[in-house]
Write a structure and sequence with these properties.
The protein is of the alpha+beta class. The chain has four helices and four strands. A four-stranded antiparallel β-sheet has the order 2-3-1-4, with no helix packed on it. The chain is elongated and about 55 Å long. The model has no long low-confidence stretch (mean pLDDT 97).
């Protein structure tokens, strides 16, 4: 399932990330290597990131949560999302099933 993932570092987690060699880069690299984001943004006005990740199962969700919590002091927020192509078939099918 594809998710829009938001993670905002706590004050302590952000300070820890900023003070380590390479700043938050090693954390971002670990997420990139493990989960291969389809997209990645960093907020300019706070210590927050957004990724689009395709997570295979609950094990990957838990792994991401532990990584974000350990490195940034942040619980990630996962919002399930569909591409336009996925929505073109999934939404009408869901509407039809809901009508029954």
């Amino acid at each position: 399932m594809r998710f829009l993932v938001t993670a905002e570092a706590s004050k302590e987690g952000g300070d820890r990330l900023d003070s380590q060699p390479g700043g938050p880069g090693p954390f971002f690299g670990a997420v990139a290597e493990r989960f291969r984001p389809e997209a990645f943004w960093v907020r300019a006005d706070r210590r927050a990131v957004y990724w689009v990740l395709d997570l295979a199962d609950a094990t990957q969700v838990a792994e991401l949560m532990h990584l974000c919590l350990a490195k940034a002091g942040a619980y990630p927020t996962l919002t399930p999302i569909l591409t336009g192509d996925e929505a073109r078939t999934a939404v009408p099918a869901a509407i039809e099933k809901a009508r029954r």
